[in-house]
Amino acid sequence: MASLDSVRAGGLFSGDSWVWWQARRLRYNLVLAAGGWIAYAAAIGLNYAFGHPVWKDWRGGLGMTLFLGTAFLVVMGIANVAYLLGPAVEGWARPADVDHYRRNAYAMGLWGSFAVPFVFPLVQLAMLIANS
Q1: Does pTM top 0.90 for this prediction?
Q2: Stretch 81-102: mean pLDDT, rounded?
Q3: Of the chain's two ends, which shows fewer C-beta atoms within 10 Å, N or C?
Q4: Residue 87, class by beta-carbon neighbours within 10 Å (0-12 exposed, 13-18 middle, 19+ buried)?
């Protein structure tokens, strides 16, 4: 099995591509974390707005928040593996305008990843409306 350095040197993750994408990974993770927290707050707010308290007491809230936060860290790990598609596809496709590809691919991945956690509050909203 090839090491990561030999894969990068072989062109799949060329040095310039790898550096460009890795320089933006922290911002990607911060946006993803913010999306998760905002979606969680929206889901809790929806429940309270419809008169459906989520927890009986603060212990339940703390426990659920810690559990869901830990689960979201696993999801963020999976998202970071998927983040490698950016430089990988760049290596495979070899776009003519690399800067344009990078900006567009990064923006689509960033905002798509930010939006995914909001699927859950939207489904919850539909369920709350259907049951009210």
Answers
A1: no
A2: 92
A3: N
A4: buried
